[in-house]
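In practice, a research group might receive sequence data for several interacting partners and want a quick structural hypothesis before committing to experiments. The following worked case mirrors that situation: the sequences arrive first, and a predicted assembly follows.
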Amino acid sequence: MSDSWQMLEGEGARINRRKFLKVLGVAGGGAVALSGCAGEPEKLIPYLIAPEDQIPGVATWYATTCRECPGGCGVHAKVREGRVVKLEGNPDHPVNLGKLCARGQAALQGVYNPDRVRSPLARTAGGDFEPISWEDALQRVAERLGSAERGRIWFLTGNEKGTFEQLVREWLSAFGSGRHVVYEPFGYEALRRATLDVFGIDGLPFYHLDEARYILSFGADFLETWLSPVELTRRFTASHAFQNGSMGRLVQVEPRMGLTGMNADEWIAPVPGTEGLVALAIAHVIVRDRLARVPADVSRIRQVLDAHTPEAVAGRSGVAAETIERLAREFTAESSVALPGGVGSQHSQAHASAAAVHLLNYVAGNVGRTVTFAPGYDPSGGSSYRGLADLAAAARNGEVGVLLVHGANPVYASPAGLGFAQAMRQISFKVSFSRFLDETAREADLILPDHDPLEQWNDYEPRPGVYALQQPVMQPVFDTRQTGDVLLELARISGGQAAARFSASTYRDYLMERWRQIQRQVGARGTFEEFWNEALRRGGVWTEVRGRGASLAAGVSRLQFDAWSAPEGSLTLIAYPSSALYDGRGANRPWLQELPDPVTKVTWGSWVEIHPETAARMGVAEGEFVEVSSEAGAIRAPAYLYQGVRPDVVAVAVGQGHTAFGRYAEGRGVNVYGVLGAEPQEFGGIAYYAAVSIRKTGEYERLAKTEGTPRQLGRGIAQATTLAEMLHGEFHPEHTEHAAEVPEHIEEVLEQWQERQYADWRNRGNYAGEHPRWGMVIDLSRCTGCSACVTACYAENNIPTVGKAAVQRGREMSWLRIERYFEGGNGEPFEARVIPMLCQHCTNAPCEPVCPVFAAYHTPDGLNAQVYNRCVGTRYCSNNCPYKVRYFNWFDYQNPADPAFAWPDPLHWLLNPDITVRSKGVMEKCTFCIQRIRGAQHRARMEGIPIRDGDIKTACEQTCPADAIVFGDLNDPDSRVSRLALDPRGYKVLEGLNTRPAITYLARVRNRAEE
Amino acid sequence: MSGPPGVLAAFQHVDAAVDAIRAVKELGYRDFTVYTPAPNHEVDKAVGHKVSPVRLWTLFGGLTGCAAGFAMTLWMSYDYPIVVGGKPLGSIPPYVVIAFELTILIGALSTIAGLLFHSWRTRRKAAYDPRFSDDHIGIFVPAPPERHAALRQLFIESGAVEVKVEG
Amino acid sequence: MSADFRPAARAAAAVVALLPLVLAVVWLRTPEAQQQPAEFVAPAISDTGSLEGPRQPIFFRHDIHAGQYQMDCRYCHYAVEVSPYPGLPSMETCMGCHRITGAALPEVQKLREAAGTGQAIEWVKVHNLPQFVRFPHMRHVRAEIACQTCHGPVERMPQVYQYASLKMGWCLDCHKQRQVTTDCTACHY
Amino acid sequence: MAAIAQPERVTATPTYREITRDIVATLGHPGRLYWIALGSALLVLAIGAGALLYQIRYGLGVAGYAPPVMWGVYITTFVFWVGIAHCGTLVSAILYLFRSAWRTAVYRTAEVMTVFAVLTAGLFPLIHIGRIWYAYWLIPYPNQRQIWVNFKSPLLWDVFAVTTYLIVSTVFLTVGMIPDVASARDRATGWRKKLYELVSLGWKGTDQQWRHYLKAYLYLAAFATPLVLSVHSVVSWDFAMSIVPGWHTTIFAPYFVAGAIYSGLAMVVTLLVPLRRAFKLERYIHEDHFENLAKLILITGMIVGYAYAVEYFIAWYSGNPFERSAFWNRAFGDYWWATWTMIVCNAFLPLLLWFRKIRRSIPAMFLISLFVNLGMWFERFVIIVVSLSFEYEPFAHGHYTPSWVDWAILAGSFGWFFTWFLLFAKNFPMVSIAEVKEIIPMPRRKEART
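A structural hypothesis for the assembly, expressed as tokens:
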């Protein structure tokens, strides 16, 4: 059998294991198989010294912290044979309680990214980079540092709250007080400024969404990127999921409906920039009508509130006065919270809008209840765009001698008008610690690649009271060094005062020194050793820091409340954060590139969201390129017609358009920073709004989107009901066909007969002495469509990414997809529904009987199984699958010699060894994570105890921040899944086909305004 | 030709050939051979064979195929039982298709086998002439040399265009 | 087989500690061996070319270790009770005994040389399952299937060869006979 | 069938000798035209084979598949060729049972077409599967894995039906050819004589041989008749047994059989027109034959047109929203052009055959037959691709465009077919010598005298 026609097993076959071993420096993986070309015998390489805590074939888990965004979730890293293969949330961690978003799942593709900087690089005279040794590199930096003038060393980092930040500060002072600039493109300057203005507090508020029954969001994308999305998703679902006959309500006030808006019960689209006025008008009504116990000091803002009557605001914002009055009444009727806008609402008056929302919360009495303050809390680490602008100005003036950049990519992620790249060129010596050759690293003279967060010792404080530890979960993949160690080493080489300053010889020692302090701070008893080991085991230490309330600051009455407005005749461009790529740092992760945008379902590129009316006026159809131009510049991207933007708004996501940053990111889509104004706004941040004009260019491309028909055509795929209906009666599923087309008595006979058919067979099933029937319940009133499950599924099941051209042909392999359907629009309220669609594991699966070779069949434990190595690839099963959840290997994604190879070295190291990597020509699909089921059954059998409900969690269930997915045994009447399956909201998709799926969906419930 | 001794006659006219065949039969010859370029009813009737036994082959082949079809599908379904689509392991309706196709296949092949077998069993060594596949009817009567003359006479009288004595 | 055998991980870690124990076991067994005339003594082999099975980089004698000295399989294949994979002994495990024992033997010399340079030995895989099959060793050990059922009389093999076909039909024969699962996804996923 | 007019005999009825001479003459030295035709067929075949190798090397992704359209040009072409294959057995077997004399001149061509069309069609299930090298797993043979095949799968029925059809139609063709090959043998020299000796199995035309032969041939015809109806029924069940809206309907079997015979007849006309000219067979194949074929085309074409109407009616009448939207999508969705090509070519154009003038005009018949071929290909394209692109799950709807590999392999299939056809036509009699003679009375003495 020819080798190229074979599938690859996770732990086997054609991955170049020899290289893996060499690079890893560990001598082998137990029973690692290594094979070359056909005919050559397989080799087994033993360990030289067996690692103490690892058994070949058995996973070891390490607790560490996700550093993909400032959220700082705790993760457990699954390590097999010395390599990390999966990340899961740390259930003990207070931020995420075991959940993880798509970006967190994709951290694996950071550590194994094929475009990582593999060794120190120095710029040559020709402008290219050449690899150099660490000794050489360190020597070069030390020389420069020695010759740099006092105070001319600048250190630019991302948010590094924790020990590393402390080290940077200390290190700079050891080298004579340089300047440390923190830059996160998605900073919270506006909110920080507003909090300072309104309450006199330097720090961001906590929003206790779980304690609010009514959430009024003025453009906060808290399900996507705002503050701490995983945590906020959990808190939001706790309030908003339909349970025990009630649920909260979310009203989203924003001109572009994002993922958060899609989850709202009501979407109100004000004139862009006026959402602050709406907030003030609501506050006005509350105070006017005494709807809440208004604090006494509200009198100080009386003037402001008086000026913003609903009628006055209605005219400017386009939100009817009645609506404002209604919102005010609803807002005060139960516990509530108002949220200020995120990056996608950051216009020039964003601080005023945020201040208005603060005032609204204040007059409604929410401050101190659902809104609390902990000074110093800032998930962007005190980032300031103004600081970056200062750095650029200083560089232009020749005031920067040495620039060190760590964890920031301002050349990409700052407005083009700032000219950061040109500014950098004015600096004589630039050192980058980037792990990737990104746009900023490209401008550096020397690159000293840092370890990936999964390879390093570090810590991080996502918020006051939470100290999260990072520990290396595997040996470094490349010849990289932790920046902390490099800084200490540089101090040592430089000698003198700098060397004397640090007693720690490694960053790990430095870290432990600080943790001794933390032990004292949190008052943990026991030896430091015990404290440290416990912290490592748990992933950190945390103390409950309950924020406090606040009262109005002195200067509050002097605040100005302006709205942003686009000049007459121009459109408003909203540059919003991409929920997958964040500020662009996720763009080199193929999983994130292939993850459909939760709103538009477009992958691998940029698009411009245009309202169909606007598009019709310009004669633009989907996929036609439009040019969006502002004073600052112009970008060209294909149009996506979307009723979720106002007709006077166009929207483009941040994150694409990289000119460097590796094969997956480069030359893809457009960088929306090119049209944003470079001037720091009053609050010190970037304005993500711009006045633009658009024009049709005549180019066309088929959008690489996974969406077919965006409407349900009345087929009841994603069903919804209203709270009122749920309270008054039963939920009636919208079925397009009646399920029971056979008389009942026949049904009964059929059932008995079928049981008999299984009877003998069941006796031979016997995995754990019982006969489970695996099933799943997905609660659509919880599911937000965030798509974390999709990426978790990619990670768990070795799903290949296929690239843009393949997605254009609909060939994405995502076993689990989030379908998004639009409802209403064209005058009706515009709504969206989402539904995770995966193999339904039908009892009467239509895919099974049509397979000529039994590759698709039903297991005794109720799974619809796909035996890859039996599959010959007729694809009949997929034709006959009404849910279209079967995926075919069109190319040889697993073959390193094939152009379609999906895991270029060393990306293949993230492959899950517990599951086959499928070869070309075979069908694959969701297995309900059968490797986890079989693994649990093995464990149960070995330990002699039965499997308990909840022992087996599928990858999607495990990571779901909203807890929307429940997996378990339907034959066990006490299991969560069987109880939930009886929920009155339960329905099966396309029930009329009598496929009898194992997945029950619970209809979404909308909490509509009572008329 | 190294065939048996006998007399070979070629006819152009079908009624002449038929007359000749009748005459030969009257003389008591049974193992003579008649060649025709195409099937011909009159000749056929004159020779007067019984119905060919090939049809029995067809019958038994067909029955065997049908039984084999059902037996194979059912046995294989239970030998390694695999449940698909919530259907019973042995489902007769879909297996009818297989049984039907095998009925045809084995029936047809056994018909051919019957044709070959019976043609082989009833083959005779006899003189031949290429004209018999063109436009002549041929009759060959194997006979010992002493009766050749009589036969020759008979054929000429019947209207043979050519008579040849073999051996 | 001793029931109180120590879990694999600990065994691997405690090699040095176990060394005297192993020597003691070997020594203690000797008198018994004298009582039992049937005690197996591994033959001296001069012609290795005629042996069945692939040539290994080191002529490791399973018949001496597992047969003559009656070492338990699990001493070296330490993960077999807990993992789908039996585990190969680390060089450290080998050297635990061979630092002293048989140090002069030429094959042991090869081992010492490799251990000295930190060069891993690339053993040739003998038992090749067909591809795309998951064989959980621990379940079969737990079900008290003797190693020899699939691997043959390794303790009599000077050089190990693949004893059983390990093909699907061979697996199924046993599964059917024991009336355990013949479900496809027990092994294929 | 009995209603079909007996063709009038041409005034100068050929004699047996003339028949033998004329037909054996077609086996003579090939001319330049033949070599050009064969060369082009081989070239196209080579292109198709190259595309197939490319596809096997890199995977099916090189074809245009766009999920959810998992079957595309290959299965379309498979059904097309299987359909073509149906006419041969119809003409040879069914018309044989009906004792329809006019078939004798054309049935060999139809049968040869059948065998090679099945041979062509049979390639496509192989070409279209993901792992062609494991295609043998569809055969229920004893294996060490102890696993069998799924007889509930319509694809297995296909394996049996198409294989049976290939074998039986080949046998039917070969058996029917024995007397003719013997006739050619008696006139050939060199290697061809040896070949004919081999193929004719020692045929001499003896009374015993004819006796068994005629019986066997009768039973083969009796078997082939239900077979021909079953094969395309089975092919139609590939679709009808599934739950795809637009596939799952009981009319499919008769609809497909009628369509298959329809397309096959059209292909016979397409092949006969040039063949008759090239082999100078005008004396044997004349307007009467074409008119009879035209009448069959007209009947089956009207059945097909009726089936189209019924499909739409039932989609509406059933009230099933999936069916309704599937058929709406066919007529007015992305693929409206394919649907209307199919309807115009298959349901409307053949109505011209109501006119006797057109039925008897060979250029017109040739043209119509080409359109029917095109229309029937599109019929399968519409059924397969358009139904799949617009299934139950709206979010998963898709759009399929074939790639160059699809087109190359489609073209290659014609190359493959014509290579075989041309090789056969020059080496074996394309008109049955024995059967043409059979319907012409042998001369009688009395007539000769008068």
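Before designing any experiment, note the following. Chain A has four domains: 121-186+381-542, 189-373, 571-700, 720-885+926-1006. Chain A touches chain C through 53 residues (CB under 8 Å).
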